[in-house]
Write a structure and sequence with these properties.
Elements lengths: L9 H11 L22 H9 L3 E4 L2 E4 L6 H8 L1
Antiparallel strand pairs: 1-2
Organism: Mustela putorius furo
Protein name: 60S ribosomal protein L10-like
InterPro entries: Ribosomal_uL16_euk_arch (IPR001197), Ribosomal_uL16_sf (IPR036920)
Length: about 80
């Protein structure tokens, strides 16, 4: 089970999952990810990359803009 929430609601979500895990048989663990949302980037990397315009929002995910490739494509994205 995966949950996304604001940082201010973190304690409430942890408590809700702690109570809910007793409803399922077997051993259940609560894992808190260091990633930003459902992306593959950590929270610190994500904020830095967005500031540098290396990540572009794309629906519920993001597009990673590589540093390689044609210069015209880079100029079009950063203009």
């Amino acid at each position: 089970m995966s949950i996304r929430t604001k940082l201010q609601n973190k304690e409430h979500v942890i408590e809700a999952l702690r109570r809910a895990k007793f409803k399922f048989p077997g051993r259940q663990k609560i894992h808190i990810s260091k990633k930003w949302g459902f992306t593959k980037f950590s929270a610190d990397e994500f904020e830095d990359m967005v500031a540098e315009k290396r990540l572009i929002p794309d629906g519920c995910g993001v597009k990673y803009i590589r540093t390689r490739g044609p210069l015209d494509k880079w100029r079009a994205l950063h203009s």
